[in-house]
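input
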Amino acid sequence: MEGGEEAAENFVDSKDLQQQSKALDKLTDHVEDRQLDSTRVQEAMASIAASAEADLNAMRMREKELAAVKINMADVEIIANELELDKKVAERTLREHKGDAVAAIRFLLR
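output
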């Protein structure tokens, strides 16, 4: 009977070892998944930062373009007074419409 008990013990031990091995594999897999997720997060953050910088550069370029547009300050005064707007808003709208006062007023009245 000792041989039978010993075989049963070995079977239980090997079953226990298999369960422990599976549990260890699950832990290891979980850590690898976490590492992959952190890599994805870092890539996403880098992409967002690059996109934000590109947006900022585009905005700077647009501001330079608008600053280069020549406008008549009398048109700014007329638009600001007649439409009861801040002069900065009137000036910006006039610049966006390349100094065309009629187009700027039509835009503001929409």
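quick obs: The longest helix spans residues 2-68.
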